[in-house]
Amino acid sequence: MKDKPVRLEENYELIINGYSHQGEGIGRVNNFTVFVPGAILGERVRAKISEVKKNFARGELKEVILSSPNRTMPLCSVYHLCGGCHLQHIAYEKQLEMKKGIVENALDRIGNQNIKALPTIGMKDPWRYRNKGYFQVNQEKGRVRLGFYKTGSYDFVPASGCVLFSLQINRLVRYLEDQLSLQKVNDCNSKTGGGNLRNVLIRESRSTGEIMIVFFTKKNNLGFDQNVLNDLVRTFPQVVSVYQNINRSPKAVLLGKDFRLLKGKPDLEDAIGPFKFKISPQSFFQVNIAQAKILNEKILEYANLSGEETVIDSYCGTAAISIYVAKQAEKVYGIEVEKSAVRDAKINCELNSISNLKLFTGKAEEWLNKWRRSCEGVHLIIVDPPRRGCSSKVLKGVIKIKPKKIIYISCNPATLARDLKYLTKDDDYKLKKVLPIDMFPQTSHIECIVSLER
Ligand SMILES: C[S@@+](CC[C@H](N)C(=O)[O-])C[C@H]1O[C@@H](n2cnc3c(N)ncnc32)[C@H](O)[C@@H]1O
């Protein structure tokens, strides 16, 4: 590392003149890029170099020498320890501008798309929006705690005061910590994978206030008795569904296949706009319902349907988007790989009196390529893949079907940009609109709708 203009552990003064895709401030020492988490555009800061790589370094913010007027006091008391939020120190309006820049930058740099995004649609109240928390379980001085690991480490941060969750979820987290501590549930630790109780998932319906809890364990036994569950639902009548998920693997991977309903009903009911949705524990559902409503309305606006079209929704989940679209199209084909989500989607069609949505269980890769010879006259294909984006097989299938329009919904600008490069490479499709929607305020994550036309 001799030839680098920065050295590990040494302090440098930097002027911040940009942001990385994770919202870190970017400064330069002799033209060498230094990322400084917590630093804001326009600030002069002192940073201590913590990592040096071939083309960049990372520095720890030690002092803000000249502060930005857009610097705000983080609401959360563990903001600097946790790492779950990245942007609480920046005024919300500026977070929205930054996210527009992150999207444009990725589209340009990775996707070769020289296009301006529309202004990011933000929230009036950008706090307490998350309807789902996946907590690590740990013990501190004999007390059971629910929390998170600091990004990239096993440093545990308690979460009972998290400002992204409702006050109800926070109360429930504290209650569970008290009860599990009282019960002396000692065999809990997600860190090593050695403990029995590893994680707790809490899902909250924003329309009814009802709650679902899943305890993730390694063994069959929960480690506490039925009375704890009886007391739980007596104290929190909003808890309408309690599951146990058993994963015997020593590695604490997210989900085992074995879900057992311990108490109450199998699913949670929520609503997006006028539509109701039942969701079972392993199905995907947007974490920010207020913004999901705006997302779905914008999809409809960009789809501009007359009622005579055929639409394919190729990563349809519990049919949150398909049901919106089905009200305005002649027919919709929904594809989803997760069986439980397809089950939920079928129930959701009944709940919302939808009869023109046909669901296909399996991979978008398989169905789209199966249909590509027989699927003429498809007006619109919607893709809403997970963070990894679409595989080239999916994109190939989409292009072969030749829909008039494509609407791509993404939660990862980098994979979005990669896939747009593919979709536009032969000039078959042109980018029409790029709209960032802030589904995840206070974090550097951003949702985006992109419309393309043939
Ligand atoms: C980001 S979610 C979107 C769900 C839905 N559009 C919504 O708004 O609720 C992505 C969904 O794609 C599903 N999925 C992941 N890979 C898939 C694949 N190869 N083919 C079909 N579905 C897939 C996941 O199970 C998940 O439900």
CATH topology of the largest domain: Rossmann fold
Distinct ligands, ions and cofactors found in the model: S-adenosylmethionine
Could you give the count of β-strands? Answer: 22
The averaged pLDDT comes out at 93
CATH architecture of the largest domain: 3-Layer(aba) Sandwich
How many helix segments?
Answer: 10
Which outline best applies?
Answer: globular
List keywords for this structure.
454 residues; alpha/beta; Rossmann fold; 30% strand
Strand and helix map with partners:
Elements: E1 11-15, E2 18-19, E3 25-29, E4 32-36, E5 44-52, E6 56-66, H1 79-82, H2 92-109, E7 132-140, E8 143-149, E9 156-158, H3 167-182, E10 197-204, E11 211-217, H4 226-235, E12 239-246, E13 258-264, E14 268-272, E15 275-279, H5 289-303, E16 310-313, H6 320-326, E17 331-336, H7 339-351, E18 357-361, H8 364-371, E19 378-383, H9 392-401, E20 405-410, H10 413-423, E21 430-437, E22 447-453
Parallel strand pairs: 4-6, 11-12, 16-17, 16-19, 17-18, 19-20
Antiparallel strand pairs: 1-5, 2-3, 3-4, 5-6, 7-8, 7-10, 8-9, 10-11, 12-13, 14-15, 20-22, 21-22
Helix pairs in contact: 2-10, 5-6, 8-9
The chain binds S-adenosylmethionine (SAM).
